[in-house]
Input
Amino acid sequence: MTIHLFISEALVCAAMYTKVKQGGGPDNQRILFHELYDQVAFLSSLFRGEFIYPTAGLLPNLNRTLLGLETDGVITILHSTVQGDTGLAESPSRDIEAVELSLTERKSGRENFDFYNFLIWPFIESTWLAAVALMCLTPPSIKQEETWLDIRKTQETAQVLGKTLYHQGDLSYFEAVNKETLKNSFQFFEEEGLILVRKSSSKGIPSAIRLAPEWTPARDPEEGGIMPEGRLWDFIEKIAKSRREGKNRRDGATVSSRVIRLADLVGKDLFENASIKEVSEVRLGNQRKRVPRKQGSERTAKL
Output
């Protein structure tokens, strides 16, 4: 894949896009170095299961990538006259204050900048979708806080949710509804402690999943809906900063409420099906207990 050749440049451009998408003049689209570093570090962490990065380390790689993009005429690096303005104590880029698109790149219609972004955007969309799917794991009631959900059905639900969001115009790329990419995202969420996964020792029984308590969104005490706040929502919003802007997504508040309502609706179905399955298993277990075991002599007589 082409993106493997330009992953460093793509991550930097996706981080810069958090400011460029705001529009306005160059000053309004300029990103401070510490903000750029923070978003690149965040995105690099998200995709560590997808890509292999240069081994030099984040800061040296970022410094090298910025210099390369400046040499290619894509960006302009603004240097500080005061040491340490970046907020990164031992940084080899301590004199870099901010980064912005070059005048040449603006005149060319952001041709190179957009090229790098288009490489990474499908992956950002897919990870955003997986994170939104975690909202579906919010228990509908206190009684269901200890309910475990089938992880395969949860991932399948994430795909259905993604298709719906795509047709609504809230997802730019249909490629984002990719089973393997979603699976990698769930693996990352498990490693970072966003979700708890109960592994199954039996082949016939799938692994189960639920949200970690500290990542579980709160519900409105009056209406009962999921509230757009908390650690999980902040995490989703940070991913969304680098998402491709679309005409159907410029009203953030409307999109937030629409996506949350849909995730809540899908999630309630997941929990309802899980509850029905638990009841069925309990009844089946009770029926098995009631069936008397046949005596050995009776079995012998029938042979």
Observations:
- Strands lie at 31-32, 75-79, 96-101, 149-150, 195-198, 208-211.
- Confidence is low (pLDDT under 50) at residues 89-93, 279-289, 297-303.
- The CA atoms of residues 106 and 116 lie 15 Å apart.
